[in-house]
Design a protein that fits this description.
Shape: globular
Oligomer: single chain
Number of helices: 7
Structural class: mainly alpha
Helix content: 55-70%
Order of helices and strands: HHHHHHH
Bound molecules: protoporphyrin IX containing FE
CATH topology: Globin-like
CATH superfamily: Globins
Largest sheet: none
Distance between the termini: 38 Å
Length: 124
């Protein structure tokens, strides 16, 4: 993995979109997470896809449509404690594992998600 290459360059839009899709399949199965999310998960899947495309070096459609991410602020309306962080993180890990990525790439992505998920804790 060359340092000038982004995750987006390496895995492409399709895999990033697939990650968001698989993640929301896990959300749908987890009652703790599910109760926080809107009934229709499709628009949420699209928002997460756009965000991840941007974060991993792809097009900045998320910010064009949604403005500055300010993710911690956008998550302030839900009580996110360490348990909820673990539910979220586990759903993302299950989704990531299904992509069957090269270990280095998977590890970089996990590193990002662990940091971001910890940053979202706002309770207890
Ligand atoms: C730690 C536990 C987390 C919980 C419980 C949580 C929960 C939620 C919920 C309930 C929504 C609303 C779904 C929607 O309608 O879009 C949401 C939105 C979102 N979450 Fe999280 N989230 C967590 C962590 C994260 C992390 C780590 C990221 C990024 C890596 C993230 C990225 C997003 C994005 C991009 C949105 C859409 C924001 C928008 O544009 O409105 N979330 N999250």
């Amino acid at each position: 993995m060359n340092s000038s290459q982004t995750i987006y360059d390496l895995i492409g839009e399709e895999y990033i979109r697939l990650l968001a899709k698989l993640f929301y399949q896990e959300v749908a199965k987890n009652k703790h997470l599910k109760k926080l999310y809107p009934e229709d998960l499709a628009p949420a899947e699209e928002r997460l896809s756009m965000f991840l495309l941007q974060v991993f070096g792809g097009p900045e459609t998320y910010s064009e449509q949604r403005g500055h991410p300010r993710l911690r602020m956008r998550h302030a309306k839900w009580e996110i404690d360490a348990d909820m962080r673990d539910h979220w993180m586990n759903a993302m890990l299950v989704a990531l594992d299904q992509l069957g990525l090269e270990p280095n790439i998977r590890q970089v992505m996990i590193g990002y998600f662990v940091k971001a998920a910890n940053h979202m804790i706002n309770h207890g």
